[in-house]
């Protein structure tokens, strides 16, 4: 990841949150948080009925993530999450990670004019967790606090 990529990702989050990014609340789990803009799909399966919702991961840690969506997603004990992880090297394909997860909360954010949804990972398919950890180790974690004017 280049310095430009890092600045682009941080710029995206500055734009979303206005002049101040406060990631202290996001790091309450004691894990590094990564500010991202990755595609994600949540698949709800209930009584033979399947519904898929799409959004973008806003921030992610080893234990879960928050995403922004146009949909008010219901809290659920188990959903299937499909995350499109962009390659670290140009010219390679994105990898789709699949994980059983739990939707913890959904709140309407007036700041984003979208719903912010909190999701916790339960179990990854195949080597998904290992792949995610390796990928995140190559990225720069979010700073504790950042202001646009600094």
Order of helices and strands: HEEEEEEEHE
- Give the fraction of residues assigned to helices: 10-25%
- How many DSSP E strands? 8
CATH architecture descriptor name: Beta Barrel
CATH class: Mainly Beta
In the sheet with the most strands, the strands line up as 2-3-4-7-6-5
Query: Based on CA inertia axes, which overall geometry fits?
Result: globular
Q: Give the end-to-end Cα distance, rounded to a whole number of Å.
A: 23 Å
Q: Whole-number radius of gyration?
A: 15 Å
The helix count comes to 2
CATH topology: Thrombin, subunit H
Domain tally: 1
**Biggest sheet descriptor:** 6 strands, antiparallel, barrel
* Nearest-integer average pLDDT: 83
Low-confidence stretches: 1-27, 146-150
Question: How would you classify the helix and strand content by structural class?
Answer: alpha+beta
- Fourth CATH level, the homologous superfamily: predicted glycosyltransferase like domains
Question: What fraction strand?
Answer: over 45%
Please name the defining characteristics of this protein.
disordered C terminus; 8 strands; alpha+beta; 6-stranded antiparallel beta barrel; Thrombin, subunit H; single chain; 150 residues; two-stranded antiparallel ribbon
